[in-house]
């Protein structure tokens, strides 16, 4: 089997952290070429640092990590410390990272990497889409070189940052519009899917039982991050948004999806960042997204538990 080449654009963030662990556990399936970071859950200075701490914890200090855009295209940055804590990784404490931050800007890394490729690299986006949007504006030709974008973002029904909008698209709706209209094959993993992937106490028990530094970090992060969603939605545990993107790359058969035209609201303050999904093709617009609608949650948690166990091996 040839490993799928991917770049991960993220804003760690507790669920981004678990997504990185999942991606790094199966190098025979996913070849992570680099990690780009963006301002989102916490400011850029923290997301880039967190990405380095997490790679070191996962034993991958060799990975190149890039810092990208420190603010959205037009709107002021909105962060999510209420969910992820002040550091972005509250609930655990990791040593200062020793691995370097690359000097190249994340946008230039994206342009260079995709332009040089043969069109075989997938981009997993786990945060606001600012880095990719700027890369598209700076070098539009990269669009033809991106195999696929698999994006955590958007909501089919209710949002989480406003009643209409999901956090990643709300933070930078103009960037999302650039990405959605770029003609790049795109799979959208919305909140409606990730809210099906709840880390219940029983699922967390299986991860805790692995009893390693990485399982302890996973559970520590989720114990903290779960509080917000459990209080807000009455869930029995936190939903793991970003890891669903990586699971989609590893096991697409866990998911069902349909093709549809997706637009994002960029003008109305009331519904800013809302994804409008034309499920029944009433606009006659050609589909621009593969919209995921369900996940096989038990299979997903078995995969995640296996990943944490694998990363825990000496
Ligand atoms: C998304 O927003 C962030 O808080 C999470 O990391 C995830 O990417 C969920 O709406
Ligand atoms: Ca994220």
Helix and strand content put the structural class at alpha/beta
Average pLDDT works out at: 97
Residue ranges: pLDDT <50 for 5 or more in a row?
none
Total helix count? 12
Spatial sequence of strands, sheet with the most strands = 3-2-1-4-5-6-9-7-8
Q: Name every ligand kind in the structure.
A: beta-D-ribofuranose, calcium ion
Which range does the strand content fall in? Answer: 15-25%
Give the number of domains. Answer: 1
The shape is: globular
The N- and C-terminal alpha carbons lie at a distance of 24 Å
Q: Profile the largest sheet.
A: 9 strands, mixed
Oligomer: single chain
Helical proportion, percent range: 25-40%
> Mind telling me the CATH superfamily name?
Ribonucleoside hydrolase-like
Going by CATH, the architecture would be Alpha-Beta Complex
Which fold name fills CATH's third level, the topology? Inosine-uridine Nucleoside N-ribohydrolase, Chain A
At the first level of CATH, the class is Alpha Beta
Extended strand count: 9
Report the order of strands and helices: EHEHEHHEHEHHEHHHHEEEH
What value does the Rg take, in angstroms? 18 Å
Short description:
The chain has helices spanning 14-24, 44-57, 81-84, 106-116, 130-138, 167-171, 173-180, 191-194, 201-208, 213-233, 241-250, 297-311; strands at 4-10, 30-37, 65-67, 121-125, 146-152, 186-189, 255-264, 275-278, 289-295. With 314 residues, the protein is an alpha/beta fold. It has a nine-stranded mixed β-sheet, sandwiched between helices.
């Amino acid at each position: 089997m040839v490993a799928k080449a991917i770049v991960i654009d993220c804003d760690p963030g507790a669920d981004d952290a678990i997504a990185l662990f999942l991606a790094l556990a199966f190098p025979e399936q996913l070849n992570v070429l680099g990690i780009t970071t963006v301002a989102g859950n916490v400011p850029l200075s923290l997301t880039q640092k967190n990405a380095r701490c997490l790679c070191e914890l996962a034993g991958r200090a060799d990975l190149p990590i890039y810092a990208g855009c420190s603010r959205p295209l037009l709107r002021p940055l909105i962060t999510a410390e209420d969910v992820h804590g002040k550091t972005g990784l509250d609930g655990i404490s990791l040593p200062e990272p020793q691995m370097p931050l690359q000097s190249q800007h994340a946008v230039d890394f994206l342009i260079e990497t995709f332009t040089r490729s043969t069109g075989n690299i997938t981009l997993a986006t786990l945060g606001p889409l600012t880095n990719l949007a700027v890369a598209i504006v700076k070098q539009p030709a990269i669009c033809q070189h991106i195999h696929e974008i698999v994006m955590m973002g958007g909501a089919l029904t209710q949002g989480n940052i406003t009643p209409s909008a999901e956090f990643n698209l709300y933070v930078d709706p103009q960037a999302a519009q650039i990405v959605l209209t770029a003609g790049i094959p795109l799979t959208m993993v919305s909140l409606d899917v990730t809210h099906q992937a709840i880390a219940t106490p029983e699922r967390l028990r299986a991860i805790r039982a692995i009893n390693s530094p990485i399982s302890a970090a996973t559970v520590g992060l989720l114990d903290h991050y779960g509080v917000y969603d459990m209080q807000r939605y009455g869930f029995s545990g936190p939903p793991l948004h970003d890891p669903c993107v990586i699971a989609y790359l590893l096991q697409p058969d866990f998911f069902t999806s349909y093709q549809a035209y997706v637009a994002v609201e960029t003008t109305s303050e009331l519904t800013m960042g809302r994804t409008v999904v034309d499920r029944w093709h009433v606009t006659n617009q050609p589909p621009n997204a593969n919209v995921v609608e369900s996940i096989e949650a038990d299979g997903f948690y078995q995969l995640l538990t296996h990943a944490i166990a694998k990363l825990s091996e000496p």
